[in-house]
Amino acid sequence: MSASINLRTAKLQGVPTAREPARGVLVAGSLPPASLASRAEKVAAVAARHAAAVDRDSRFPAEAIAAARAERLMGVAIPRELGGEGAGISDVVDVCYALGRACAATAMIYAMHQTKIACLVRHGRGSAWHQLLLRRLCNEQMLLASSTTEGQSGGDVRNSSAAIERRDARITLERQATVISYGAAADGIVTTARRSPEAASADQVLVVFLKQDYTLEPLVGWDALGMRGTCSGGFRLVATGTNEQILPVSYDKIHAQTMMPVAHLAWSGAWAGIAAAAVERARAFVRKAAQRADGALPPGAMHLTRAGASLRTLRSLVAGALQRFEQAADGPAALESVDFQTGMNLFKVNASELAVATVMSAMQACGLAGYRNDGEFSIGRHLRDILSSPIMISNDRILANVGAASLLGGTPTSLRD
């Protein structure tokens, strides 16, 4: 992809073939870089034109998602034999980065959609129903939403209250979902649930319901500080379907191998894009201020240096995490190892904190011009959007959950360990 948006460091590893059915979104990019980059830039241009209105009105970025559908970006990560393009995880994260530079809500919606696609690609292989769904997703450029938070458990995605009810070949589900991002605009919802009413809260399945399968009753609105266009309101979800719509792999496997790492990678690509856009504005401000002062740098210039340095660190962090995931992607044992799981969770924490620090430094570089909402150097929207990053799956929750694993680890004896 073009140097302006490429986050990856590894070389392309080739196009997946019919003999490599498990690859698809889980390996390094397989598309001609210029093709996907140019399409992503076209969508980003549309997203940028409407970003202010999307934020101001707290509305779904319909124009940008329509453009993504027109450029056939929704199904790029689905394998070629199912009608997709076999895009790799680095390809997807690069698109998230490009969109993040234009409109945070569009980037986050695309990231969440692609995380669901990744789960279907890896874990729906043994299901004819899900294979047909993937083909339909490509043909119709459908948008998938996610429902993993409910009731009092909040962001504890590894426990569910609502259970799948079965009667013969039919299933029903009713859950009080505290958040379903862009749920009203989606063509389908991928949701976690307890396997049965008798199952423990952590004995979960992942199931896909299409638009005709469910109703959504609004419970909580979405008047948030940032990421306003994700429309992440709460709903009472009532769904019916067939047993075939449940993925054939238990959710603990799906979460460890795909859901968690792909979500953290895609989200971090979007956050890096937001940070990059803020740094671009800060750089433009410092240049303009220096021109007006006969070359003398404004007092905030030192903050631009700090912002640029933290953005480079953030990009390197994302690129390194992508490489680690690609190296482990074909090995379930490696993906489920304590070391990998801990590393990917801490990657999310570090990436989100770096992204916030980068945008904050960019605002300080601009001073009052960055603080204002009505000027060309305003960074208010970027700051409000990026402040969501430590909250999406709370960093505090992640650090508490990996605390036990940290006690088991040793201290490296070499910088090369």
Tell me the layout of helices and strands.
Layout: H1 33-57, H2 62-70, H3 89-102, H4 104-123, H5 128-140, E1 144-147, E2 165-167, E3 170-177, E4 188-194, E5 204-210, E6 214-220, E7 234-242, H6 251-292, H7 301-328, H8 332-336, H9 338-366, H10 368-371, H11 380-386, H12 395-401, H13 403-408
Parallel strand pairs: 1-4
Antiparallel strand pairs: 2-3, 3-7, 4-5, 6-7
Helix pairs in contact: 1-2, 1-3, 3-4, 3-6, 4-6, 6-7, 6-9, 6-11, 7-9, 9-11
Describe the 3D structure:
By secondary structure, the chain is an alpha+beta fold. It has 3 domains: 24-143, Acyl-CoA dehydrogenase/oxidase, N-terminal domain (Butyryl-Coa Dehydrogenase, subunit A, domain 1); 146-245, Butyryl-CoA Dehydrogenase, subunit A, domain 2 (Beta Barrel), CATH 2.40.110.10; 251-408, Up-down Bundle (Butyryl-CoA Dehydrogenase, subunit A, domain 3), CATH 1.20.140.10. The chain is built from 13 helices and 7 strands. The chain has a 4-stranded antiparallel β-sheet, with no helix packed on it. Strand 2 and strand 3 (170-177) form a beta hairpin. The protein is globular. The protein starts with 32 loop residues before the first helix and ends in a 9-residue tail after the last helix. The model is unreliable at 1-5 and 8-25 (pLDDT under 50).
